[in-house]
Amino acid sequence: MNSLAQRASDRERSRADFESKLAATQGGKPSRVLRQTEVCERSGLARNTVWKKVRAGEFPAPIALGGGRIGWIEAEFESWLASRPRALWAPQAVAA
Description:
The protein has 4 helices and 5 strands; from the N terminus they run αβββααββα. It is α+β, with helices and mostly antiparallel strands. The chain has one domain: Multidrug-efflux Transporter Regulator, Chain: A, Domain 2. Strands 3-5-4 form a 3-stranded antiparallel beta sheet. The longest helix is centred in the N-terminal third of the chain and has 21 residues.
């Protein structure tokens, strides 16, 4: 297969993967694509921390939207967020 045909095949495979991820539903609603600003705001993580976690496999990988833009599938992000352990904060005893 020549490189042009290979790239077209790769694009088609990526498009099919993208469409299947978007078809995933959460609460009966189709998933949205979240931009990086919203991901950072909703997760409370800095941009660099998000990328460190993506590279370490600890955060959902983004998808390419074209034109150098990326986004995260909302259902994957929500699933990651729900999987985070809750911090147990007990009130500290005050010394008298």
